[in-house]
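EI: anyone free to look at a 138-residue chain?
SC: sure, send it
EI:
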Amino acid sequence: MIVTQDSMRVAVPPMAAYEHLVRFSEYARFMSGVLGVTPVHDTAAHLAFDIGGRRVEVDAVLNDVEPGRFVRWDSDALVESFWLEPLGEHDTNVVAVVQLDDSMVQLLERRPDVALHARLHMDLKGFKRFCEESAEPQ
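SC: here you go
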């Protein structure tokens, strides 16, 4: 099992960040390496990623959520958890943890832990941009 964690300050309230994290259909707009998202229903989707040079396809299900505070989705090979910590009225610290079952998904990278962490960091940067641009007045 490879586990990595990162965090990013996002200039939106926790509930706004939460709303984006529970919508699988938005993942392609902020996650790096997303090759496809096929919603199954409101709490499940088939996701295809490129992670470390390897195509990874998972059936993801939202298994644990606390509105405005926590989101976790699970699949056989990949689990992502997000803690949303309020920083004042309009900012949120998003702490993300990714767990990859490397017995199910063999990454092509020489250092798969480094590749997974780099992907997570890029995803958080994309999430920050997406949330903040979504919050801007039109």
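EI: The longest helix spans residues 112-135.
SC: 👍
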